[in-house]
Design brief:
about 575 residues, ARM-like, mainly alpha, Pds5, about 0% strand
Length: about 575
């Protein structure tokens, strides 16, 4: 719009005041100024745009109220009343303001903006006037006048900063609505959003600021949702400058781009329509750490519960899947960790993930093979339907991994699935049949040469296959059905396990019997032989031998310990008695 020529007040230029209002000058006290301004406020509040005669009559007063005496007045009440008058003046004289000087308009709007800080204290006696000021400005869209000013951005930045800083949990929906209307009209009806103005919105999404002022975050979120069609281009330009062109100096928020992308995606994926292709570009970066940062970000976006990003942007999804084969180990590890959330939240993507998890289940890095197992087992524990036979097959293969940590994770994971779905039947007969092979596979491992594997099978049998915590009758039923359903090799393994356990109990019994005999060299030699045979059945044979020597020495000195141990290895020892023995050993 073109600004009109300076309007002239009626008559000889003398300022006309409303009836009963005396002249307002710097010669009177602040209290008197406030008293007279309240009457002026009431006059302008009652006027509307059709009051042509009054508009001309009080034009001189309107110009007077924008003088330095009022705009720089040190009294807070005076400033508030003047701001209310000015807001009404813009309403009454719209669409053309009576102030034609660009500098004067800038001063006025910066002045009004400063007064809006009073909105912060809802318990203030003056809060209703501050609310009236906000409501008036939002309803008339008064700030849109500033579009014609060369430095309007300075005004808008101050306005946005002020509103985001004052909003708090004591404000009702009307306050929030008027703030929203005021800011959204500036964004949607202007020629564009500058980076500085965009920053005043985006800074409220950064975790540190978000946690400081939840209401400012909610206001920014709602504002972005309302203006998505307009502001998306500005957001895309920002990320293009930082991500593609590497111009981090364009904004103080450049170091937070990934946090911002995550937040914006959660608010409305439409805000990032043009940004996603830029992330595909960053996934192919030569910098491993940069690829890792993008993978972490996209893992959150693809894995989010209601995310449709994978189906909406297949090229980006395929590019992301390619990072499962990244040369950088941390990138591959991050991808595997992501798969767990993805399988749980998006089972429809399991087919895409299966082939990549298969490759990673044979990864040269132990940590990655381990996490593949954790990923599959966690998904299976949540819902067995989330993991197909192929995925379970990868875990099955890893029970024979060259690394103990990986083998242990695979065995324990399968045991947990067996207990959940076969023993407790938490998902019905079909699920139990699907993993019925687990019991046989776990017992087959008893044939391995490693004593660690054998001992873990014994632990799994006692905790997951025939849990020792069951009542005697239930335990016998459990054992009966298990034994009846095992394949031939698993039965042989189970019999061998019992045979070894019985042999070990026999060795301990013989050791205890030797302690009852008089001390002699022959007796000591016999004890040593028993200790070495027992140590062979414990992990880390070297350390086990030293441990058994010390344990034998304690046995010789503690008769109560020998009694408890005899009870523990007795065929008639109950679970309750065993618990008592274990407590004694612990003490």
């Amino acid at each position: 719009m073109e600004f009109p020529q300076q309007q002239k007040p009626a008559g000889d230029g003398k300022i006309v005041y409303p009836p009963g209002v005396k002249e307002i000058t710097d010669k009177i006290s602040n209290d008197e100024v406030v008293k007279r301004l309240k009457m002026v406020v009431k006059t302008y509040m009652d006027m509307d745009q059709d009051s042509e005669e009054e508009k001309q009559q009080y034009l001189g007063l309107a110009l007077h109220l924008a003088s330095e005496f009022f705009l720089r007045n040190p009294n807070k009440d005076v400033r508030l009343l003047v701001a209310c008058c000015l807001a009404d003046i813009f309403r009454i004289y719209a669409p053309e303001a009576p102030y034609t000087s660009h500098d004067k308009l800038k001063d006025i709007f910066l002045f009004i903006t400063r007064q809006l800080k009073g909105l912060e204290d809802t318990k203030s006696p003056q809060f209703n006037r501050y609310f009236y000021l906000l409501e008036n400005l939002a309803w008339v869209k008064s700030y849109n006048i500033c579009f014609e000013l060369e430095d309007c951005n300075e005004i808008f930045i101050q306005l946005f900063k002020t509103l985001f800083s004052v909003i708090n949990n004591s404000h009702n929906q009307k306050v929030q609505m008027h703030m929203m209307d005021l800011m959204s009209s500036i964004i949607m009806e202007g020629d564009g959003v500058t980076q500085e103005l965009l920053d005043t919105i985006l800074i409220n999404l950064i975790p540190a600021h978000k946690n400081l002022n939840k209401q400012a975050y909610d206001l920014a979120k709602t504002l972005l949702k309302r203006t998505v069609q307009t502001i998306e281009t500005c957001i895309a330009n920002f990320f293009n400058q930082v991500l593609v062109m590497g111009k981090s100096s364009v904004s103080d928020l450049s170091e937070h781009v990934f946090d911002l992308i995550q937040e914006l995606f959660a608010i409305d994926p439409m805000l990032l329509t043009s940004v996603m292709p830029q992330l595909e570009f960053k996934l192919k970066s030569n910098d491993g750490e940069e690829r890792l940062a993008v993978v972490r970000l996209l893992a959150k976006l693809f894995g989010a519960k209601d995310s449709e990003l994978a189906s909406q942007n297949r090229p980006l999804w395929q590019c992301f899947l390619g990072r499962f084969n990244d040369i950088h180990v941390p990138v591959r590890l991050e991808c595997v960790k992501f798969a767990s959330h993805c399988l749980m939240n998006h089972p429809d993507l399991a087919r895409d993930l299966t082939e990549y998890l298969k490759v990673r289940s044979h990864d040269p890095e132990e940590a990655i093979r381990h996490d593949v197992i954790v990923t599959i087992i966690n998904a299976g524990k949540k819902d067995l339907n989330l993991v197909n036979d192929q995925l379970l097959g990868f875990v099955r293969e890893r029970t024979l991994d060259k690394r103990w940590r990986v083998r242990k994770e695979a065995m324990m994971g399968l045991a947990q699935l067996y207990k959940k779905y076969c023993l407790h039947h938490e998902a019905g007969k079909e699920s139990a049949v699907k993993i019925s092979w687990i019991k046989d596979k776990l017992l087959h491992i008893y044939y391995q040469n490693s004593i660690d594997d054998k001992l873990l099978v014994e632990k799994i049998f006692a905790q997951y296959m025939v849990p020792h915590s069951l009542d005697t009758e239930e335990k016998m039923k459990c054992l009966y059905y298990l034994y009846a359903c095992l394949d031939t090799n698993a039965v042989k393994a189970l019999n061998e396990m019992w045979k070894c356990q019985n042999m070990l109990r026999g060795l301990v019994k013989e050791l205890l019997d030797l302690h009852k005999l008089p001390v002699s060299e022959a007796n000591n030699n016999a004890m040593f032989g028993k200790l070495m045979n027992i140590a062979k059945n414990l992990p880390d044979a070297g350390k086990a031998q030293d441990f058994m020597k010390k344990f034998n020495q304690v046995l010789g000195e503690d008769e109560k310990l020998r009694v408890q141990l005899e009870m523990l290895i007795s065929p008639t020892c109950s679970c309750k008695q065993a618990e008592i023995c274990v407590v004694y050993f612990t003490i």
